[in-house]
Write a structure and sequence with these properties.
Blueprint: E1 11-17, E2 20-27, H1 32-46, H2 57-75
Antiparallel strand pairs: 1-2
Helix pairs in contact: 1-2
Length: 77
């Protein structure tokens, strides 16, 4: 899936000298999809299912992005 959710926390940094703008830097940071996935992963790891092993790391990663995709889809409605 392509991630066109846009930046979660964009920042514009303007550098001035003698009152004139000499440089602008745009920091895009995480996308909304990455942010939502991280928040979902944090919640899942706060209370993992009993009997989970290291082999479930891939499942946690995949599931966190599925939750993020669901959040983005719901937000587009």
């Amino acid at each position: 899936m392509s991630d066109n959710s846009g930046p979660a926390f964009p920042i514009k940094h303007i550098i001035k000298e003698n009152g004139f703008i000499v440089s602008e830097i745009n920091f895009q940071g995480l996308t909304k999809r990455e942010w939502f996935a991280g928040m979902a992963l944090q919640g899942m790891l706060a209370k993992p299912l009993e009997g989970e092993r290291e082999s479930s790391f891939e499942c946690y990663a995949e599931c966190s992005f599925r939750y993020a995709d669901a959040m983005l889809a719901e937000g587009e409605k």
